[in-house]
Amino acid sequence: MRAQLVYIGTYTEKLPFVDGKAEGIYVYRLDADTGELHYLSTTVGPRNPSYLAIDPQQRFLYAVQETEFGDDPRIYAFAVIGDGL
Q1: Which residues, including other chains, have CB under 8 Å from residue 53's CB and lie 6 or more apart?
Q2: What 3-state class would DSSP assign to 62?
Q3: For the sheet containing 60-65, what is the strand order?
Q4: H helices, E strands: number in the chain
Q5: Distance between CA atoms of 36 and 54, rounded to whole angstroms?
Q6: Are residues 66 and 11 in contact, defined by beta-carbon separation less than 8 angstroms?
Q7: Does residue 12 contact residue 22 with C-beta atoms inside 8 Å?
Q8: Is 22 in a helix, a strand, or coil?
Q9: What is the chain's percent helix, strand, coil content, to nearest 5?
Q10: What is the DSSP letter of 84?
Q11: What is the DSSP letter of 34?
């Protein structure tokens, strides 16, 4: 099985343009042979971690906290440890 980790950022709260109801950053394993996604974990914490980026060595995942205008913007860094953050 050829597999890779997939990170999905979500909206966790209501904003003017989205009614966010998710919990945070979701981690799945993608089976590249079948296209199936297998849930592994959820990282709760940042509000609306909608934009994600991973470093080239895949050791750290960065998440942008998307908020309303005038709110504190933040960037979070998570260490990739096994199948979680």
Answers
A1: 61, 62
A2: strand
A3: 49-54, 60-65, 74-79
A4: 0, 8
A5: 22
A6: yes
A7: yes
A8: coil
A9: 0, 50, 50
A10: B
A11: T
Mean pLDDT, rounded, of the chain: 92
Q: 57 in the Ramachandran plot: left (φ > 0), alpha (ψ -120 to 50) or beta?
A: alpha
Structure tokens at 46: 């940042």
CB count within 10 Å of CB 48 equals 23
Q: Residue 12 corresponds to which tokens in the numbers above? A: 């966790």
Per the listing, tokens 């934009």 go with: 51
Query: How big is the chain, counted in residues?
Result: 85
Task: Give the mean pLDDT per block of 10 residues along the chain (85 residues).
Answer: 91 90 96 96 92 96 86 90 92
pTM: 0.89
